[in-house]
Amino acid sequence: MGVEPTTSAMRMPRSSQLSYIPNLFFARGILHQNELYSNTQPVLILSAMKLTFLKAVGTHIVSEQAEEPVALLRDIIINPDSGAILALGLFISKKIIPITDIREWTHEWVKIVDETAIIDREELIKLSSFNPKRTKIFGKEVYKEDGKFMGFVEDFIFDTEIGSLTQLYIVKKFLFISLEKRVVWFRDILRIEDDKIIIKNDTRGTKEHIKDFFDLRSKIKSPVGTSCPVQ
């Protein structure tokens, strides 16, 4: 697949937000499967790491122009076709922050230049082409392609280095008892629909994957000073 041409309709970072250090999201001139930019575009600097969704919820959104946090992270908005992170959803607001407007992302905060990075969903052309329900991952039912119910997405892992969803943590329950737990890689997902996710019939989760998932989640500190419920 070739690099998609950049158009003026796509929301481009302001010149004050750009750095020419080639790393992370825009390493080798791509934003996860050639999402937006050609290899001549400048790059944004992000702290490379893996995070789980539940550990990221409630993270402070901070501005270089303000002393206090300007928002709290509520959702990770995903391109359902490629798994790429497109934007962050915010608490107490229907607005978003495009991934290209993030200057720094750590366990403790997400940094933007100023509040002009917070926009309406419709302003991001790439995102407006998807039904909002398809771009959400948490809480969705998961089925194999033969129709077998596998459980619900109770968390997921994303990687800020490649800007993408990488794994789903799926739990099947009876009442409040967890019957089965599994970790599924993004490559095993066939499609993400409005209300469910379909995975390959031969998808298998191993105990090692479960252990690795919990090891990762235990190492990530929850955002300081926040107690935001997932909505």
At the fourth CATH level, what is the homologous superfamily of the largest domain? PRC-barrel domain
- Poorly predicted runs are 1-47, 225-231
Number of domains: 2
Just give the CATH class of the largest domain: Mainly Beta
Beta-strand portion reads 25-35%
What is the tally of helical segments? 3
- Radius of gyration, CA atoms, in whole angstroms: 18 Å
Task: Find the structural class using helix and strand composition.
Answer: mainly beta
Number of strands: 13
Looking at the structure, the CATH topology of the largest domain is SH3 type barrels
Q: What's the end-to-end separation, in Å? A: 36 Å
> How do the SSEs run, as a string of H and E?
EHEEEEEEHEEEEEEH
Can you summarize the main beta sheet? 7 strands, mixed
The overall pLDDT average reads 79
The level of helicity is under 10%
What's the CATH architecture of the largest domain? Roll
Layout: helices, strands, pairs:
Blueprint (H helix, E strand, L loop, with lengths): L49 E3 H4 L3 E4 L7 E8 L6 E6 L5 E3 L3 E4 L3 E4 L12 H4 L12 E4 L4 E11 L4 E11 L2 E9 L3 E4 L3 E4 L7 H13 L12
Parallel strand pairs: 2-7, 8-13
Antiparallel strand pairs: 1-9, 2-3, 3-4, 4-5, 6-7, 8-9, 9-10, 10-11, 12-13
